[in-house]
Amino acid sequence: MSRRTLQLPSWLPIDPYILALIGTVALAALLPARGGAADVAGGASTGAVALLFFLYGARLSTGEAVAGLKHWRLHLSVLVCTFAVFPLLGLAAKGFVPVILTPQLYNGLLFLCLVPSTIQSSIAFTSIARGNVPAAICAGSFSSLAGIVVTPVLAAMVLGSAGGGFSADSLLKIVLQLLVPFLVGQLLRRWVGGFLVRNKKVLSYVDRGSILLVVYTAFSEGMVRGIWHQVSFVRLLGLLAVEALLLAVMLTLSWYGAKRLGFGRGDRIAIQFAGSKKSLAAGLPMASVLFGAQASLAVLPLMLFHQMQLMVCAVIAKRRSRDPLPDENEQAGDSERAAGAEADGSPAEAAAVR
Description:
It contains 16 helices and no strands. It is an all-alpha fold. The longest helix has 31 residues, at 168-198. The chain is globular, with a radius of gyration of 20 Å.
């Protein structure tokens, strides 16, 4: 969790990485990869994604994951928000087709509802709001790990052939390209984990560079196939409106639902930020495998939602930071849970996963 991340303007937190993504999309629009260049870009993208998930596996502390299980009710709440409530809302959004959303944009919106939660920004916003940071670390890590398997399975169930060719072969590609490198990273963590932690700033550029390559490849293929001619400016505005409604509903449900379940203030903050957000880093590689030529339209809702969640959650985190301190009993309960989550490892190391 970097100091720079925490100092982003709360009223309009424009992530520089979002600007890089926009620039990559513009490059793909002006100079899309064609022919042999497209084959090279596709191969490089596949290798980059495998490397990305290898690094995730190598940097995730098994000890911290085991320690985090002690706070299982919180993590289960986040998983339910991410992989149950979100998908149900996505299915309900079918009512916006075709008046507001096209079928292609709806498939992308539904895919957005299936990807795991993000880690880094959830940690940053939980810290700003004075919530349970160790819980946010573990909850985001568990969600990302579960998403490697759960997201493609859910996608096959709810999207079917509309997603661009979901099949046993697509699921096998997910396993080989994402899960296997992750497990190899876990196995080799004993030997390479220390190096990765010491060089996490440099390796973060590898992470982000991999995602930019995936975006370029997907949008290049979309340009070559003429997919972008299917989307109008009015449809994009409609997509933004639907996503704003989706985010508002999830922020409300996660906050008041956690209160209803008896969680303290610190835990409610962690649940709200981890349970209402979606991971661009995890979603883009999966979309490139599952959607094929339709990947550029499939990831558009996720990219827009990613920036929206940063802007809205930054404002909420800033307002939460001015809340009165909890009473002593609640504060003690949160501190005890936080200590349990930190017992077997360093939270800063887990934060490096994203």
